[in-house]
Hints:
This protein has helices at 12-23, 35-44, 50-62, 76-80, 83-86, 95-101, 114-128, 143-148, 152-164, 196-208; strands at residues 2-7, 28-33, 65-70, 90-92, 106-111, 134-139, 171-174, 192-193. By secondary structure, it is of the alpha/beta class. The strands form two sheets. It has a four-stranded parallel sheet with strand order 2-1-3-4, with helices on both faces.
Amino acid sequence: xxxxxxxxxxxxxxxxxxxxxxxxxxxxxxxxxxxxxxxxxxxxxxxxxxxxxxxxxxxxxxxxxxxxxxxxxxxxxxxxxxxxxxxxxxxxxxxxxxxxxxxxxxxxxxxxxxxxxxxxxxxxxxxxxxxxxxxxxxxxxxxxxxxxxxxxxxxxxxxxxxxxxxxxxxxxxxxxxxxxxxxxxxxxxxxxxxxxxxxxxxxxxxxxx
Length: 209
């Protein structure tokens, strides 16, 4: 059984390989990387790449993938919506994180890319359902430019600094998988949630079913 992962940056490949080795030894991963999907989704909205995502995922399902995990929060909702047509479970990496976040009353969402905010806020609202949750989005200025330039330390330091500046929150959500390691650099006492580990666990469970 194979889990296919759809990434919009190659930096995610070793991250998820390491999590697999630590938490799910024996799980076979197949990585698909398409950076252009994120670029076009940012320019024209996630719906602009829905047909291409559906085609890519249908192909990988046809080649034997048991389930698919989309690790990009910007296009995760679009990927998830293709499951019926693709024919295998398609999960978005940030859904388990969102479900955990909305158990709290005050949630701050940190995103390095503006295009990620709307899909993440919609997901949190969906997971909250009838519960009243105060969600505050924060765009970490300058962070994405550092990520694009390959300055990983500078990128993570900006995200961590933004987390440390948060006040009046019960939990902080790191909206993108690429920001997960910033959680190791914070000094805030507020819990900081990231998506890779819980998202991979959910996908591994889907493969096992």
